[in-house]
Amino acid sequence: MVEALNGASHAKNDLLATRGLYHSLCLSSKIRCSQWTEIQRQLSGRAGGTMNVFDRTMKRRQKKWAASLQDSDKYDYLRDEVGSRVADRVYDIARTFPLALDIGCGKSHIAEHLHKEVVEQLFLTDISEKSLRNTRRSEIPTRCVMADEEFLPFKENTFDLVVSSLRITTILVLPSVSLCCHYNPSPFPKINQVLKPDGVFIGAMVGGETLYELRCSLQLAELEREGGFSPHVSPYTAVTDLGNLLGQAGFSMLTVDIDEIQVHYPGILEVMSDLQGMGESNCAWNRKSMLHRDTILAAAAIYQEMYGSENGSVPATFEILYMIGWKPHESQAKPARRGSANVSFGDLSKIGQPSTKDKS
Q: pTM to 2 decimals?
């Protein structure tokens, strides 16, 4: 059904081919993206909860700008590393996936680490057309679809596997915010919807402790120089909320684990420059448009003083949350009925100890 993409024009041809593909795989939407952006902007100011934390139009511009850089490959080190770790988790599942979906693929940072013996066919989606045109070649037959992560244009029960690496962070908010609104901005229900029964979702996203060095330095500098501070780093989801979000979306047999990746930079300016090159600048609605020069200089000094190494470099910590969730199916193992156990946990301490007969 899907043929391998070859040559420099492979992504362009497939972007055009998706128009016909939508008639068989895609769901119709009554709200255009431009209309939805205006709706989000209005709802974000409602009393009782800021349901929309991120400006998706700004994020789309950031991704488009980052993908257009001549040296964009030098900013891919974090995505390449996390993509390989997501692929490792796919290999941990002893099965073959006939049809898979990569949400927010970028330059196909996950696909390049997968083999066609594990994933037979793969759909790549991203909000940036330039990113899709720059996808790296893979031995897996792939198809590119430009789509927003909030609006997956596929029918229910389509994919055996859905993967995502570092791209669902900017559309996720805390459960307390989601529950107080009519619209739930979490992408997990839509991911669960496009999965087949007994299908699996494997993803990675940035955790709440990410870039704590940068955030602390900027806040202290602003307090000192301007008498207050504004958020300059996008808010991230805490690991304690992730399991609740997956469970509310209908996933079962959940697995969530944390990993930290620490990168050393010459200084704070290099940290901020690389974030911009990754397309990961702050896109929250309440972001501050600029930083004063004195504040940046003060933040650089604070960063170096509090976190600097002996060689003069400064660390930037990225907390990565990995998640695995399964769409329920009758064949899956289910927990035993409460009260049906015939062994007490108190007997665990006796395992390995000699019995009374052995002692005598």
A: 0.72
